[in-house]
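Need a sequence for this fold. Nothing fancy.
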């Protein structure tokens, strides 16, 4: 199955590269007659195309913007049917609006050219999307020198200057370090791999996780947008925040279960069913099956069928947390003797 997925991914990559090459050939054909003229390679789209939900790319057409003194020409071809078009406009009749980078406009910075003939959206055809803003600004300042959008309008959004984006980043790093430190440094309790797998694939847990993630993402996005954070940056921050929330959910649940537990860790009887593999004597308690593949030397001293007690903390959330403070000393003593 994995090979089929890999072949499909390779086929998609080859198709995308082939499409880009074909588009570049058509664009080169438009550029060839323009020797000696001022022009810029651009991507284009109609406003209605950007408003449409059923599209895979924010780019509807690829072409060039030609500066003909008092006129501008948009030459291009539509990606869907390779149909060529030309739009000639008087500069005195057009209104240029800086749109920037929006939620459904991809990684590019866009501008709108409005005229009596209608509106066209365009952005710089720059292979490096990180330079999309500066490339579009250069086009506008060269083709429409009378325009003055100001640095504030065309500048990149500064995350460090928005209180809400800073708050989101602080929450991201706080949750990230909590999940890392609590799981691997300061906690004496551990959930077994079997429990983690059963929790992840539990239908109720999956449904609750999807619902909680969706609600959190929606509320965080709305909060960021009301604070003036652009859509693209808001989506990026929301993705980081929800990912860290998912990562911190299990350590957080463990902590809550520890605080709510009405009794300390207890010893539970297990039976050795094979080397380093133990099953609970009482299967009705819901205890996890234990498997210790990295300590087989230790478990070889216990014959199959013998019993061994394992300490767990069990709280109201139903988690069985292995207490390493009580469980580890016999193993450490064994390996210290062994040298």
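Here you go.
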């Amino acid at each position: 199955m994995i090979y089929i997925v890999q072949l499909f991914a390779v086929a998609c990559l080859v198709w995308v590269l082939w499409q880009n090459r074909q588009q570049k050939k058509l664009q080169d054909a438009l550029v060839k007659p323009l020797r000696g003229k001022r022009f810029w390679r651009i991507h284009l789209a109609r406003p209605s195309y950007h408003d449409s939900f059923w599209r895979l790319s924010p780019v509807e057409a690829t072409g060039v913007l030609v500066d003909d003194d008092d006129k501008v020409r948009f030459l291009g071809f539509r990606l869907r049917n390779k149909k060529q078009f030309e739009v000639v406009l008087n500069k005195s009749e057009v209104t240029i609006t800086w749109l920037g980078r929006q939620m459904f406009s991809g990684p590019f910075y866009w501008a709108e050219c409005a005229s009596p003939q209608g509106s066209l959206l365009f952005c710089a055809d720059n292979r490096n999307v990180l330079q999309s803003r500066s490339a579009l600004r250069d086009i506008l300042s060269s083709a429409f020198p009378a325009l003055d959008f100001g640095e504030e309008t065309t500048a990149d959004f500064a995350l460090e200057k928005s209180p809400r984006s800073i708050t989101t980043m602080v929450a991201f790093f706080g949750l990230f370090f909590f999940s890392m430190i609590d799981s691997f440094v300061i906690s004496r309790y551990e959930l077994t791999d079997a429990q983690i797998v059963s929790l992840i694939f539990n239908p109720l847990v999956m449904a609750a996780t999807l619902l909680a993630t969706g609600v959190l993402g929606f509320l965080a996005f709305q909060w960021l947008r009301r604070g003036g954070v652009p859509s693209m940056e808001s989506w990026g921050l929301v993705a980081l925040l929800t990912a860290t929330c998912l990562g911190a959910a299990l350590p957080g649940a463990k902590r809550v279960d520890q605080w709510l537990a009405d009794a300390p860790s207890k010893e539970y009887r297990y039976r050795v069913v094979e080397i380093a593999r133990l099953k609970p004597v009482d299967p009705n308690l819901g205890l996890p099956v234990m498997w210790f593949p990295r300590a087989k030397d230790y478990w070889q001293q216990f014959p199959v069928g013998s019993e061994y007690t394992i300490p767990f903390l069990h709280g109201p959330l139903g988690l069985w947390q292995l207490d390493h403070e009580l469980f580890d000393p016999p193993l450490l003593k064994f390996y210290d003797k062994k040298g």
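For context: The mean pLDDT is 86.
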